[in-house]
């Protein structure tokens, strides 16, 4: 159950980082690819923007983790969990960067 909670917590953290930044008109509602595409389009963010790329990468990692069977929750799971933590950190840095760019204009 803690693996499930960790995935949900990571998703919430990503949404909190993006939506809490107050940089975007429309909030990001989930980490599905369709939701990210809709969010980026409605906020006029290029599909190749670093934030969009990070969100989609995180989405893929979390999807993979969600579909690992219990027998396979071993070293692979730990590596992927670390990858999610790094992706969250990178997302936080990128959002902070965008905020600094916006305030310096």
| pLDDT < 50 stretches | none
Average pLDDT, all residues: 88
Class by helix and strand content? Answer: mainly alpha
The major sheet is characterized as: none
Query: Topology as H/E string?
Result: HHHH
Strand content: under 5%
Kindly, what is the distance between the CA atoms of the first and last residues, rounded to a whole number of angstroms?
Answer: 46 Å
Q: What level of helicity do the residues show?
A: over 70%
Count of the domains: 1
* Rounded radius of gyration (Å): 14 Å
Q: In one word, what is the shape?
A: globular
Number of strands: 0
Number of helix segments? 4
Task: Write structural notes for this entry.
The protein starts with a helix and ends with a helix. It is 71% helix and 0% strand. α1 runs antiparallel to α3 and α3 packs antiparallel against α4. It has helices at 2-20, 33-42, 50-66, 75-103. It has one domain (2-103). The protein is mainly α and 105 residues long.
């Amino acid at each position: 159950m803690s693996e499930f909670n960790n995935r949900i917590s990571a998703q919430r953290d990503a949404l909190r980082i993006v939506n809490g930044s107050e940089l975007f008109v429309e909030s990001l509602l989930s980490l599905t690819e369709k939701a990210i595409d809709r969010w980026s389009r409605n906020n006029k963010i290029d599909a190749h923007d670093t934030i969009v790329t990070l969100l989609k990468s995180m989405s893929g990692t979390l999807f993979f983790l969600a579909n690992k069977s219990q027998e396979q929750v071993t070293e692979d799971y730990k590596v992927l969990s670390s990858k999610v933590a790094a992706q969250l950190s990178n997302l936080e840095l990128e959002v902070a960067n965008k905020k600094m760019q916006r305030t310096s204009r």
